[in-house]
Amino acid sequence: MNTLAYAGPGPWIVFVPFVWAAVIITVITVLRRFGGRRPHGVRGWGGPGAASAADDRSPIMLLGRRFAAGEIDEDEYWRRLTVLEEQFGRLAVGDKGRRA
Predict the structure, then answer these.
(1) What angle do CA 75, 81, 86 make, to 5 degrees?
(2) Which residues, including other chains, have CB under 8 Å from residue 43's CB and lie 6 or more apart?
(3) Non-local CB neighbours of 74 within 8 Å, separated by 6+ positions
(4) pTM of this prediction?
(5) Residue 28: exposed, middle, or buried by beta-carbon count in 10 A (0-12, 13-18, 19+)?
(6) 92 Cβ partners below 8 Å, 6+ apart?
(7) pLDDT tens digits, one per residue of 41-99
(8) CA 80, CA 50: separation in Å to the nearest integer?
(9) Which residues contact 72 (CB under 8 A, 6 or more apart)?
(10) Are 68 and 79 in contact (CB under 8 A)?
(11) DSSP state of 14
């Protein structure tokens, strides 16, 4: 009588390292997605949109939102934007759409 106990593990032993690799990769993926550290000063899960959460509080973004909501007119927007650019530096987007 010839059973696996006497004939050895057979060719399936080759797949054991692949199974362990899959388990380790799965554990690392789950820990990185749902655990881990959050960037300093960012609330939320720290996913792809987390950087925008910190940018939403910038004075230039707040000014843009007030202009879009109609709280301030165009002249007031450009005056305040000029002051903010002097204090905080250039916009990351560049000078697109800026009046001369």
Answers:
(1) 135
(2) 53
(3) 67
(4) 0.36
(5) exposed
(6) none
(7) 545 555 555 555 556 678 888 888 999 999 999 999 999 999 888 887 665 444 454 54
(8) 27
(9) 63, 66, 80
(10) no
(11) G
Residue labelled with tokens 């973004």? 61
99 contacts: CB under 8 Å, gap ≥ 6 = 78
Amino acid identity of residue 23, one-letter, is: V
Q: Write down the H helix ranges in the chain.
A: 4-7, 16-34, 50-55, 59-69, 74-88
Closest CA to 78 of 62, 98, 92: 98
Those residues whose C-beta lies under 8 Å from the C-beta of residue 58, and which sit 6 or more positions away, are: 88
CA distance 52 to 61: 11
The closest of 50, 58, 66, 56 to 89, measured between CA atoms, is 58
